[in-house]
Amino acid sequence: MRVFKLLSIALITASAVPLAARDRDNVAGEAALSRITERRDAGRPVDCINLRDIRSSEIVPNTAIVYRMNNGTLFVNRPSGSGILDRDDILVTRTIGTQLCRIDIVNLVDRNSRMMSGSISLGDFVPYSRLPKRS
Questions:
Q1: 99: closest CA among 54, 42, 65, 44?
Q2: What tens digit of pLDDT does each residue of 41-88 get?
Q3: 11 to each of 5, 18, 20, 41, 67, how far by Cα in Å?
Q4: Which of 25, 58, 47 is nearest to 122 (CA)?
Q5: pTM to 2 decimal places
Q6: What is the C-alpha to C-alpha distance for residues 9 and 94, in angstroms, rounded to an integer?
């Protein structure tokens, strides 16, 4: 019985460390996303965005993908499985048609090894428009 208690304590302690690190990563990711979207107003989520309008994309580790559009709008996508997003990943998306949509799968490729590091499923795209300048 004593061995069982010791094993239980060891398992609880071992699982607490990754949870603490994961929580810290989530807080850091949310803070980074907040800095990116500050002074912007969130709009109604949409299912798809036009590929031709995307100027660039940015990974917010463990949190989201931010798509910067030609018109200055940001679209934030919080994909299913975002916990594996890493700033050093390359996003590889195969689309059918001219839009990137919430049902699309994005493969992640490690920038250094060029090995696939995972896949995520895109969610809704939330637009963030610039707030009007104060006069």
A1: 54
A2: 999 999 999 999 999 999 999 999 999 999 999 999 999 887 889 888
A3: 10, 12, 14, 44, 40
A4: 47
A5: 0.79
A6: 46
Distance CA 102, CA 96 (A): 13
d(CA 33, CA 74): 11
Edge-to-edge, what's the strand order for the sheet holding 40-42? 40-42, 125-130, 74-77, 64-69, 54-60
Contact 64, 45 (CB under 8 A): no
CA distance 31 to 22: 14
- How many angstroms separate the CA atoms of 108 and 135, rounded? 44
Lookup: tokens for 59: 């990974």
**Euclidean distance between CA atoms 124 and 49, whole angstroms:** 10
What's the per-residue H, E or C state across 30-45? Answer: HHHHHHHHCCEEECCC
Closest CA to 65 of 91, 39, 43: 91
Residue with tokens 């107003």: 41
